[in-house]
Amino acid sequence: MTEVTTSPVNASAELLARRQRVLGQGYRLFYQEPLHPVRGEGVWLFDAQGKRYLDVYNNVASVGHCHPAVVDAIARQSAQLNTHTRYLHHAIVDFAEDLLREFPADLDNLMLTCTGSEANDLALRIARHVTGGTGVIVTRWAYHGVTSALAELSPSLGDGVTRGNYVKLIDAPDNYRQPGAFLASVQAALAEMRAEGIRPAALLFDTIFSSDGVFSPLAGEVAQAVQWVRDAGGLFIADEVQPGFGRTGEAMWGFARHQVVPDLVSLGKPMGNGHPIAGLVGKSALFAAFGRDVSYFNTFGGNPVSCQAAHAVLRVIREEQLQQNALWVGHCLREGLQALAQHHALLGDVRGSGLFVGAELVSDRENKTPASAEAVAVVNTMRQRGVLISATGPAGNILKIRPPLVFREEHAALFLDTLDAVLTEVAQR
Questions:
Q1: What is the DSSP string of 102-157?
Q2: Residues 284-342: pLDDT tens digits?
């Protein structure tokens, strides 16, 4: 009797069909040919056929896929106890004390959640409670989470999500296309709120403006914007879900690059290397004012297993000097991309900090015309050649380069060599 086997390709197609049948059409997958990884290690993912992929996109596995220290911390605590945060347990206190040492002294309290969306939602609730305002200022292509309240603050989710009438949009600090627009739009947003009788509650943005296109404001711009909002009665919420935990290289937190101390700081997925833990760091006076009037708890936000995972991540970042690695390898990456731009007209601009880099593709450098179709082709051709990246920005034309923090120079060299060949191929199509 002949044994019938299913090829890995057919197995992936069958899995995709099953997924679509039971999960529906609301979920999205990366790449025109969806990836089916079965194992991860460091900066590598492996599919069912044994092909390895260089992960130059996944910030969630911040210290690398399946880091042994994180896996061990999860396993040990799982075998001992996992319960909720309404009991005493040393893991949450030990972690909170250690994490807060990485923040300015004014930011002295931590509340833990399961997701970054929950952290941003809590930040929004606190800001509105303590200021008495409702108005929120966000960038034009922001993403801050998936709750109803945050979807209204996340224009990048698409036109199908109605923006709240208390939300004012500002330009990201895009010094490639429109220098100076950031501060002018903050002033305009505050003026609109005054005219409409809306009291500001918060200025909220991701401190590397990743969804907008990966931007770095000019010196002093963020501090000035924050001061204007505070003068109007609002708070500054720094969304560190993507730029936090040493990713920018220059500092542990993205906000530190802008010489400003936020009122509240939201943290997310990279905190636990993908384990479901997130949190909100802030000034104790704000937490106290909120807590006096509002009963808040998050049953499994900060459970012992998640806290041990997050504490292991924090130790790995320090012990393996991953912030310093992000600074150096990020410098090599940007230099390499700038060298490629000398030979590829598609590469219009290179920007970012540490291991968070944006490379803008344009079809016409003089007019800076977004090369959206070419970006799709580059991302998918890179995937075919075993290198994983994505694209971002309103036109989807900015390559989003954001590898795990254990990404080294040899990995950067492989990425750059592959991108060089792919840009040549795409330009010739």
A1: TS-TT--EEEEESSHHHHHHHHHHHHHHHH---EEEEETT----SSHHHHTT-GGG
A2: 999 999 999 999 989 999 999 999 999 999 999 999 999 999 999 999 999 999 999 99
- Region 68-85: mean pLDDT is 97
Choose among 37, 32, 67: nearest CA to 50.
37
Question: How many other C-beta atoms can be found within 10 angstroms of the C-beta atom of residue 113?
Answer: 24
- Residue 17: what residue type? A
Two structure tokens written together for 240? 């560190």
In this predicted structure, the answer to whether residue 4 has a pLDDT above a threshold of 80 is no
The last residue of a domain, from among 319, 346, 374: 319
For residue 107, the surrounding DSSP H or E stretch is none
3-state secondary structure of 27: coil
Determine how many CB atoms are found less than 10 A away from the CB of residue 391: 21
Nearest to 236 by CA among 221, 254, 222: 222
Q: What's the pLDDT score for residue 352?
A: 97
Query: Within this chain, do residues 262 and 354 fall inside the same structural domain, yes or no?
Result: no
Domain tally, the chain: 2
Q: Are residues 250 and 354 located together in one domain of the fold? A: no
Q: Which helix (H) or strand (E) holds 136?
A: strand 135-139
Q: What is the pLDDT of residues 134-154, one digit of tens each?
A: 999 999 999 999 999 999 999
pLDDT at 26: 79
User: Two tokens at 81?
Assistant: 């106890």
What six digits make up the tokens of 422?
A: 């792919």
Residue 3 lies in a domain: no
Domain final position from 282, 303, 319 = 319
Q: Render 244-272 in DSSP notation, one character per residue.
A: TTTTTSSSSSGGGGGT---SEEEE-GGGG
Its sign, for the CA torsion 410, 48, 316, 319, is: negative
Q: Are residues 156 and 76 in the same domain?
A: yes
Selection from 361, 340, 357 nearest residue 349 by Cα: 361
Asked whether residue 196 falls in the same domain as residue 251, the answer is: yes
pLDDT tens profile 16-56: 899 999 998 778 899 999 999 999 999 999 998 999 999 99
Q: In what order do the strands lie in the sheet with 52-55?
A: 37-41, 44-47, 52-55, 387-388
The residue range of the domain holding 202 is 68-319
Residues in the chain: 429
pTM of the model: 0.95
Q: Provide the percentage of residues in the chain whose pLDDT is more than 70.
A: 98
Under 8 Å CB-to-CB from 51, ≥6 apart: which residues? 386
